[in-house]
Design goal:
This is Antibiotic biosynthesis monooxygenase. It comes from Streptomyces yangpuensis. The chain is mainly beta. The model has no long low-confidence stretch (mean pLDDT 92). It has a four-stranded antiparallel beta sheet, covered by helices on one side. Helix content is 11%, strand content 37%. The two termini are 22 Å apart.
Length: 90
């Protein structure tokens, strides 16, 4: 098993930052992650990070947040996937 972090980031249309934030908070995933955080940044950006425990090769099947309505955002959503790596303790 490894830990996978999915990051979803969007920038709201002018004046709609709070609406995008509430939209992101309201999204229900097909199953619950181990952890989920919703953050905001300047320029009405919203970041959602979810953490999952996944067997090798299964990370592709993890549920992700969808794209919001086109009029709510200024550009396509950015997405990243990270997998934990072993450290040598140094």
């Amino acid at each position: 098993m490894s830990t996978v972090a999915l990051m979803w980031e969007a920038r709201a249309a002018d004046g709609r930052g709070n609406e995008l934030l509430e939209w992101a908070r309201a999204q229900i995933l097909a199953r619950e992650p181990v952890r989920r955080e919703v953050l905001r940044a300047p320029q009405d950006r919203v970041l959602v990070i979810t953490w999952w425990e996944a067997a090798e090769g299964i990370a592709a099947d993890l549920p992700e947040l969808p794209e919001p309505a086109a009029d709510l955002i200024t550009r396509a959503v950015h997405r990243w996937r990270f997998e934990s790596v072993e450290t040598d303790g140094a």
